[in-house]
Amino acid sequence: VLLSSQDTINKSAERLKILEVKAEDLKVVDESGINKKLQTAILALPEDKDFTTVISLIRILVAQSGMELTSLQLGQLQGGVSNLNGFSVKMEVKGLMQTFSNLLKIVDNSSRVMRISSIEINVVSGNNVIAATLGVDVYYSPFPKDLGNIEVSLPKLNQEEENLLANIAKSQIASLSGTPLLLPRGKSNPFE
């Protein structure tokens, strides 16, 4: 009985130490800075698929490039990045060859974590007009299960992660200029 009581006291002391460190860390946290970083990270790599936002983003990116979106299909991810979940988007576009190269750059610099997985180009007419099929892998990552757990110490970003977050934020500002930060998610009243 004495040994189990000592074990309980040791575990409580260990837990108290973690909580004290966490309380000290929380005193110096810049709340608005953390909120901005969190918003940037969630916009780039959300916790769920969020098809509606991806479709809206694709439509915006295609329009920014000057191409015309003729078809859009969602499917399962074939391969991809091993530690991320995702799905594939197959889009068919039509337009000038120069605007297609713009589309590739815009998708590559998108605010959302995406990867071009396939490209197929067909010449429609002699005037440099093409029809292209573009495969894009779109990624998301569910939040860690222990996020917010009182017994887990606060995670801290290293310098490399801070730099990556800053680059993502710059990319988001560039790709979303003139567009709302939160993309439309459907009707405000679904019963109308």
SSE order and pairing:
Blueprint: H1 2-27, H2 31-44, H3 51-65, E1 68-76, E2 85-96, H4 97-108, E3 114-123, E4 129-140, H5 159-175
Antiparallel strand pairs: 1-2, 2-4, 3-4
Task: Characterise this structure.
By secondary structure, the chain is an alpha+beta fold. It contains five helices and four strands, in the order αααββαββα. It starts with a helix and ends in a 17-residue tail after the last helix. Helix content is 44%, strand content 22%. It has a four-stranded antiparallel β-sheet. It is elongated.
Largest sheet: 4 strands, antiparallel
Which percent band covers the strand fraction?
15-25%
Helix content: 40-55%
What is the C-alpha radius of gyration, as a whole number of Å? 23 Å
Biggest sheet, strands in spatial order? 1-2-4-3
| Low-pLDDT sequence parts | 176-184
Q: Structural class of the helix and strand makeup?
A: alpha+beta
Q: Quick check: average pLDDT?
A: 83
Number of distinct beta strands: 4
Topology pattern, helix = H, strand = E: HHHEEHEEH
Shape: elongated
Roughly how many Å apart are the termini? Answer: 67 Å
Number of helices: 5
